[in-house]
From TrEMBL:
It holds the Pfam family adh_short. It comes from Bradyrhizobium retamae. NCBIfam families: PHB_DH (TIGR01963), PRK12429.1 (NF009093). This is 3-hydroxybutyrate dehydrogenase. GO terms for molecular function: 3-hydroxybutyrate dehydrogenase activity.
Length: 260
């Protein structure tokens, strides 16, 4: 379905981004992997996807907290592959604290990586996608792009902002062959959430297993995690012809979290 297309997935050395990258590669897309990690592990991921799916995969370590680096990632990709078809803005970080104690540096970092990086990437990618008359921009927002929780001021603000940015870009690209949508996951068991489970366990003096049950019970009515593979499937759907008229919207993959 995506044979010959070129996709950038930011933050794809781990978790949801990696699940999305693998799904797009399975469908034939060439990939730019991005994110931090140990060089040997990243190379194993890169060569593994190339081998498993027979696509070209390059790694680019651009730092998503820096607007210029994001724009250069887009430019380098177009130089290298001669095109850019799919941009998945996925890189993200989390930090939790009550608003009055929230460190300003953490606020700045979360806004930069979880929101501004998508702005810079989209701004640089849209001209190329419009020229090709086909493009798919998928912003990985969150249930926290639609509703709030305590102690997540920066994350909730950034993810709500990302859903807003999605609507604007959906409008501005409508009819051009380019679509822009947000995907809003509930809990997905990745390192980002693993840390929150450990924090609950430590605060309440309970086991990891009990903390996991509490985390799910509080928010996710299905009482189960969504998986990186399922998020990959959602992004693949948004890249399919069935989604040609879906733009400027947010799709929840959250086990019912935002239904109540
Ligand atoms: P993760 O920690 O497993 O992966 C985050 C990825 O982003 C990693 O590859 C990391 O190296 C990369 N990254 C972090 N800072 C970066 C930077 N400055 N430059 C480049 N790459 C950087 O987390 P995840 O759970 O897979 O999260 C992926 C996205 O999904 C995030 O935007 C997150 O907010 C969102 N999300 C996650 C959940 C969940 O339950 N895990 C739920 C809703 C939304």
């Amino acid at each position: 379905m995506l044979k010959g297309k070129v996709a950038i997935v930011t933050g794809s050395t781990s978790g949801i981004g990696l699940g999305i990258a693998k799904e797009l590669a399975k469908l034939g897309a060439n990939l730019v992997l991005n994110g931090f990690g140990e060089a040997g592990e990243i190379e194993a991921i890169r060569s593994g996807i190339e081998r498993d799916h027979g696509v070209r995969v390059v790694y680019d370590g651009a730092d998503m907290s820096k607007g210029n680096a994001v724009r250069e990632l887009i430019d380098r990709t177009v130089e290298k592959f001669g095109r850019l078809d799919i941009l998945v803005n996925n890189a993200g970080i989390q930090f939790t604290a009550p608003v009055e104690e929230f460190p300003a540096a953490k606020w700045d970092a979360i806004l930069a990586i979880n929101l501004s990086a998508a702005f810079h990437g989209i701004a640089a990618a849209v001209p190329q996608m419009k020229k090709q008359r086909w493009g798919r921009i998928v912003n990985i927002a969150s249930a926290h792009g639609l509703v709030a929780s305590t102690h997540k001021a920066a994350y909730v603000a950034a993810k709500h902002g990302l859903v807003g940015l999605t609507k604007v870009v959906g409008l501005e690209t409508a009819g051009s062959g380019v679509t822009c949508n947000a995907v809003c996951p509930g809990w997905v068991r990745t390192p980002l959430v693993e840390k929150q489970i450990s924090d609950i366990a430590a605060q309440k003096g309970i086991s990891q297993k009990e903390a996991t049950s509490e985390l799910l019970a509080e928010k996710q009515p299905s009482l189960d995690f969504a998986s990186p593979e399922q998020l990959g499937g959602t992004v693949a759907f948004l890249c399919s012809a069935a989604a040609d008229q879906i733009t400027g919207t947010a799709i929840s993959v959250d086990g019912g979290w935002t239904a109540r």
